[in-house]
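#onboarding

Welcome to the new folks! Below is a worked example of what a typical request in this channel looks like: someone posts a single protein sequence, and someone else replies with the predicted structure as tokens. Don't worry about understanding the tokens yet, we'll cover that in week two.

Example request:
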Amino acid sequence: MKWVELKMGQLGVLNNPNYKITALLDHLAMITVQSDSRGIFDCKPLGLIWAKFPEFYSSKNTIMFDDLRRNFRDEPKKWLEIDDLSVLDHKNWEFYAEGNAKNRRHT
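Example response:
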């Protein structure tokens, strides 16, 4: 967890006034799941969090930062100024990075 807190602090995530971080999860929070395409693997438990607290959390208001793509159960999402994060595809997240504002206007 020290590494997670350090990196999120360096990225400016923990003290950003534009959003509120409600949870940080490290590898100890991972669960084992099975997928037809990937077999058995460990991932972060976003689905469980969404199921347990649907009034607070969903794919519409959740963003997950991780250095390993394999830690995502479903396809991760990009971040933008939108109302529903679940409509985004994370594969080209660099396209929406802060320094790429010109490209964001054309989506």
